[in-house]
Amino acid sequence: MNHALPSESYIARLDYLAFNGKVCSSVEYSDEQRFLEDLKESLYHGEPLCVVLYRDRDGKTISRAFLNDLDTLPKGLSVEDDPHRKLPAMVPKKKEHEPAR
Fold this sequence. Notes:
The protein is an alpha+beta fold. 13% of the residues lie in helices and 26% in strands. Strand 1 and strand 2 (23-29) form a beta hairpin.
């Protein structure tokens, strides 16, 4: 029996950086409170990391107001589509100059 939520969506990811600036590990979050706790804890301990916020179906992310509460800022912040979200099938748009098929 599968107890996983079928539509669980992720809101953010923390990318932890190695000494050379490359991502050495990542943790994804579906719970905003847990994400903020881990972010603040990691920054408090001086861990170099980047924050990736995931866009939902409507193109929205969680509020960035949490950045105002941080004593230390992450090394980077970016926004991506949630990679786990099932995207609708894309129908290629035909260009205007293409003949009808």
